[in-house]
Amino acid sequence: MAEPSTAAIYRRLVAAQVRSQASYRASFALDLLSNVVFLGADLLTVLVVFGRVPVLAGFSLTDTLLVFGLSSLGFSLADLAVGNIDRMQRHVRTGLLDAVLIRPLGVLWQLLVLDVGVRRLGRVCSAVVVLVIAVRLAQVPATPANLLLLVVTPVAGAVFFSAVFVATATVAFWWVDSGELSAALTYGGRDFTSYPMTVYGGWFRHVLAFGLGFGFVAYYPALILLDRPDPLGAPSWLGWCGPVLAAVAAVLAGLVWRTGVRHYRSTGS
């Protein structure tokens, strides 16, 4: 009998995780609902802000909803695919990482399939709904270029946020209690990209938007979709740079991860 391929092994592990989570139907349904509520709470924050001011840093509610929708869908896809890697500190502390290292499979892929976040599908679906509504409210023209950008931007955002998840989780190889740092960059980055960059100022905007690349996740693509120039004076072609930035971020995250694995020393747990 032929041995199953590596891909077949991962498929079986993912299928087992899905069956395991779906077997407790009430709990699974509540998990799905809670993820919808979480996105709803973020959306409510935007609505509350615009309940007090008609325009925020030069952007209306419909403009901001488009930025929010692009950012939320990209982050939700990344959270669904690799979000459980933010438990890296626990894996190191409990010794689970040591057990994974001696198995003949990729370390990162094993950790990702250990707890596939099927329950996060609720957040992805609600993010799609928010983005579709935002596109309709902003009256984005249905040109081929705009439709392509609406597909490419969330995918590139998902790759970018996945790279951030993996790169920040790698810090746990050297600093076990690095959870707050990881959360600050992943969830903080999501919050940063949910609003137009003109909301932020000074060094904070330059570091997160250009130094770390968060400005290319949603803000610049949204400017193209809204057919408006950048109030900060940047050229419009920056809106198409998201996939390039995401590819660079993925390569860097992979290098950081491999370096961490090579230099990892067991905690002895």
Automatic annotation (TrEMBL):
<dbReference type="Pfam" id="PF06182">
    <property type="entry name" value="ABC2_membrane_6"/>
</dbReference>
<keyword id="KW-0812">Transmembrane</keyword>
<keyword id="KW-0472">Membrane</keyword>
<dbReference type="InterPro" id="IPR010390">
    <property type="entry name" value="ABC-2_transporter-like"/>
</dbReference>
<protein>
    <submittedName>
        <fullName>ABC transporter permease</fullName>
    </submittedName>
</protein>
<feature type="transmembrane region" description="Helical">
    <location>
        <begin position="147"/>
        <end position="176"/>
    </location>
</feature>
<feature type="transmembrane region" description="Helical">
    <location>
        <begin position="28"/>
        <end position="53"/>
    </location>
</feature>
<feature type="transmembrane region" description="Helical">
    <location>
        <begin position="120"/>
        <end position="138"/>
    </location>
</feature>
<feature type="transmembrane region" description="Helical">
    <location>
        <begin position="237"/>
        <end position="257"/>
    </location>
</feature>
<keyword id="KW-1133">Transmembrane helix</keyword>
<feature type="transmembrane region" description="Helical">
    <location>
        <begin position="95"/>
        <end position="114"/>
    </location>
</feature>
<feature type="transmembrane region" description="Helical">
    <location>
        <begin position="65"/>
        <end position="83"/>
    </location>
</feature>
<feature type="transmembrane region" description="Helical">
    <location>
        <begin position="203"/>
        <end position="225"/>
    </location>
</feature>
